[in-house]
Amino acid sequence: MADLRINLAGIKSPNPFWLASAPPTNSGYQVQRAFEAGWGGAVWKTLGDPILNVSSRFAAVSFNGQRVAGFNNIELITDRPLEVNLKEIYETKKKFPDHAIIASLMVEPKQEKWHEIVKRVEDVGVDGLELNFGCPHGMAERGMGAASGQVPDLVEKQTYWAKEVAKTPVIVKLTPNITDITVTAEAAVRGGADAVSMINTINSLAGVDINSWNTIPHVAGKGAHGGYCGPAVKPIALNMVAECARSPHINVPISGMGGVSNWQEAVEFMLMGATGVQVCTAAMHHGFRIVEDMLDGLNNYLDERGIAKVSDLVGKAVPKYSDWGNLDLNYKVVARIDPNTCINCNKCHISCEDTSHQCIDMLKDSSGKPYLQVREEDCVGCNLCSIVCPVDGAISMVEVASEQPPMTWNERQAALAMTSAQKLDV
Ligand SMILES: Cc1cc2nc3c(=O)[nH]c(=O)nc-3n(C[C@H](O)[C@H](O)[C@H](O)COP(=O)(O)O)c2cc1C
């Protein structure tokens, strides 16, 4: 069995699966049950000045029969008194000394407020702190959460204030509601962050009821933007993790989250630079026991590949992620249709004909039976036909030899610049 332990900036955990700061980590009762189920760590539901919540606060987007393809909420931070949370954190840590308990914190952007809360939570034995600069609603309107997290100076300053007194590692949780997450990640690093985590939720409105014209969800007929998470946000989160992982200025560990629902997605995040993952929506949808499959799947994956430690996965795919200008312009794939598997539904023909490069012909064989064939010389390898094809294996994208040597856009531009410089010399 592979070694699943991780060490994220000094925070040790028996495995890379943590529950994210959210409803699943709202109380000692829940976190203890989660640890019993197999979760390696938990980021406690954000502590701060307890707030009032509204009733009716979640909504989900179901897509083509998949329930909770995306999840939207207008919930705020903890609504339980700090003393109660601290007592339960203390008790939980006592019972589970080897599991990671991280306190998520959000206070007003004032030095004394950060000093006070950091000292109070560290007194009860947390393994680390996560500064919540990400919640997009409610708290942001009071200058906290994403409102702080969108201003690099405030991220840096508040991280610095927390670090002034913190004895445990400080993770800074970033908001995705920003153009370039590396800017705020760098600010966190400048402030002394020991790690960064991402993503918090994305500004969203789940829907509008077309009969009542109310927003979904609504509170007595009024709505407000919420935060989006769950499977739909995974590609956005994965890119943000990867962008931070490949930045030479963000040389701290990353705790990745956003749409992680199974072990395969956890592996993707780790390959793209996350030391471990956090999960919220999938646990809310399916319960704590999903971690059993995650642990089994990850163990098998590592064993099958002879990888001794899960930490050996971290960042392995990062060198493969680059700028568009470094992609080989002469690399070519084309679509090939397997006539024995194809059911002649024509979906590929229609999408290619209407919206791509018109290179799938509808032909008939000698007996008059219809079949579809790609004119490879006209195929640009966009993948659309294989994406819309409903039958696995009916269309494959195959690599074809290029007549040209590899050449990236950047190399091409450099070569052109060199040629014009030479012409000028002459
Ligand atoms: C109902 C709900 C409440 C949340 N509350 C918090 C919170 O208090 N603090 C925080 O940092 N993130 C909070 N989050 C965000 C999650 O921790 C996580 O960043 C986000 O949901 C992405 O992960 P997921 O796609 O696995 O859900 C909340 C998310 C949900 C759905």
Identify the notable features of this structure and list them briefly.
alpha/beta, TIM Barrel, 4-stranded antiparallel sheet, 8-stranded parallel barrel, 13 helices
What is the CATH top level name of the largest domain? Alpha Beta
Bound molecules: flavin mononucleotide
Distance between the termini: 67 Å
* Helical percentage: 25-40%
Question: Main sheet, how many strands, which sense, barrel?
Answer: 8 strands, parallel, barrel
| Approximate shape | globular
Quote the average pLDDT: 95
Q: How much β-strand is present in the residues?
A: 15-25%
**CATH-level-2 architecture of the largest domain:** Alpha-Beta Barrel
Q: Work out the number of β strands.
A: 20
Q: Reading side by side through the largest sheet, how are the strands ordered?
A: 3-4-7-8-9-10-15-16
Brief rundown of the structure:
The chain has helices spanning 28-37, 82-95, 111-122, 146-149, 152-165, 181-190, 234-246, 263-271, 281-286, 290-304, 347-355, 384-388, 409-425, and strands at residues 6-8, 11-13, 17-19, 41-47, 58-63, 66-73, 100-105, 128-132, 170-173, 195-198, 202-204, 207-208, 215-216, 226-229, 254-257, 274-279, 332-337, 360-364, 370-374, 395-400.
Written description of the protein model:
This protein has 426 residues and is an alpha/beta fold. It is 32% helix and 22% strand. The protein is built from 13 helices and 20 strands. It has helices at residues 28-37, 82-95, 111-122, 146-149, 152-165, 181-190, 234-246, 263-271, 281-286, 290-304, 347-355, 384-388, 409-425; strands spanning 6-8, 11-13, 17-19, 41-47, 58-63, 66-73, 100-105, 128-132, 170-173, 195-198, 202-204, 207-208, 215-216, 226-229, 254-257, 274-279, 332-337, 360-364, 370-374, 395-400. It has an 8-stranded parallel barrel with strand order 3-4-7-8-9-10-15-16, surrounded by 8 helices. It has a 4-stranded antiparallel β-sheet with strand order 5-6-14-11, with no helix packed on it. The mean pLDDT is 95. The chain binds flavin mononucleotide. Residues 20-23, 45-46, 71, 73, 75, 77, 104, 132, 134-135, 173, 200-201, 229-230, 233, 257-260, 279-282 line the site of flavin mononucleotide (FMN).
